[in-house]
Amino acid sequence: MTNFYRDNDDLKFHLNHPFMKRIVELRERNYKICEKEYYGKDNITPNELKPCNFEDALDNYDSVLEIVGDICGDVIAPNAESVDNDGATLVNNRVHYAKGTVENMKALRQAGLTGITQPRKYGGLNFPTAVYSMMIEMVSRGDASLMNLFGLQDIAETVKEFATDEIKAKYIPMFTSGQATGAMILTEPDAGSDLQAVQLKAHWDEKSNVWRLNGVKRFITNGNAELSLVLARTEEGTKDGRGLSMLLYERDDTVIIRRIENKMGIHGSPTCEMIFKNSPALLIGKRKFGLIKYVMSLMNGARLGVSGQAIGLSEAAYREALKYAQERAQFGKKINQFAPVYEILTDMRVKIAALRTLYFETSRFVDVYKTLEEIEHERELTINEKAELKQYKRRSDFYTPLIKGLSSEASNKITYDAIQIHGGTGFTKDFPVERLYRDARITSIYEGTTQLQVVAAIKGVTSGLYAEMMDDYSSRKISYDLEFMVKDLKEMKKEYISAIETVEKHEDIEFLDFHARRLVEMAGNIIMGHLLVLDADRDDKYKLTAEVFIKKSKAENTERALMMKEMEPSFLNHYKELTKRP
Q1: In CATH, which superfamily holds the domain spanning 182-289?
Q2: Catalytic residue check, 327
Q3: Which residues touch 356 (CB under 8 Å, ≥6 apart)?
Q4: What is the pLDDT of residue 412?
């Protein structure tokens, strides 16, 4: 079968990104924990391999990614159809995964892939987020629904960052051993996007020395997890986010799973409605910081996870469409030779490459700031490290909503186009693209809708962060034969700045909100264009991809800018009026 790592050169290319050296240096604390005596021994588990230098670390990552690639190609992808057909079931208040999902999780667990980013002292691999992101993409390419189990390892990340040493020592090994899966229990029937409205109550039980949870949660991904982070209202009399705290709940018989949602896609991932009745829980971090600090931190990981899921789905859809177009003949020739078809296929490929380079750039930003935060608990950071932490935290906060919004919307378009390439057969269940299309639809909805990602990302526009990054990228030395593309990107930046000024001159918040998505998409196109040029400078094979992407993006940005230029705030009244009509 296919190895999903070996058949995708982009992954190894990004694994070897120059900035990975700094990330690994931080992750391995300048290699002070190297234990050379492990090398040469038989039966060494992955988490025992402690690199002595950067080359050792990359070899470790490469070897484990090979294993993941095999599992994705040989186990996960072949099981995807049966998992989609069977789905999860609810019996006697317990969720049971589809047979294929159980096989998938067993394969990952036996390979030691259930504690990717966790410290070795808890049984983890201590791998960077960027490497974990590669795994998420591959798993999602095999079966997007499995990512919602594999990707929820991030629950352990939040426990590691904010819990007490006692809680960490007890519960993180449950994740790393594969004994526990995780869940984020946030959403309620009347508190979806607006988490400040969460009403599930938590009260302190002094006799038992635990918090007790009471209330209903809905649309909970993997709601049957052994360990869950629950957002609950610990402060009586409060109605906003300041009364919310984060608590760790270990599955027991006090919670009733009312039902599994009958969803359009990702059938292997159970989405549950849950009723808590005096359920015991432990406080994570400080009271009142549940939403304003811990959920926000959790969201960076969740956004990255869904971005990888979206890109994995897109990769799978593109490969299916390309294969079909190369084999299907009409009017005397293969359909991939027709301009309308090869245009679609090329747009797919180029868009995926652009999103992937932004995805891994974002992952690297997250790596730096999260690792420096860890180090800050071990020792005082230097002045330079404090500045580095602040810089990469800011970049992460604006890049994670950017990649999540762009990749999820693109995956909907790419899977749609894959069906179009297949024609009538794509509308049947005879080909995987029908399933991919259904699975992709959720990516622009959960873990924050695209509209909410824009709300977060627009601050990157108005604060100037995206413009700063454009200047940073364009200032880097590149090969002379690529400079013409940087010139185009600089022109696109001028148009982008002009569009911002056009909107902001009206000093109308609603008008800014109306055009926010256009401004964010313009910024995304320019940033991805720069990243592709930098990729092309490292490897000439990306030159054509960069050139096609920038040419198309330039036209798209001009169209967006023109709409902002041609519209006054008063024109929004037309939109409002039309929505009043049936």
Answers
A1: Butyryl-CoA Dehydrogenase, subunit A, domain 2 (2.40.110.10)
A2: no
A3: 10, 14, 137, 311
A4: 98
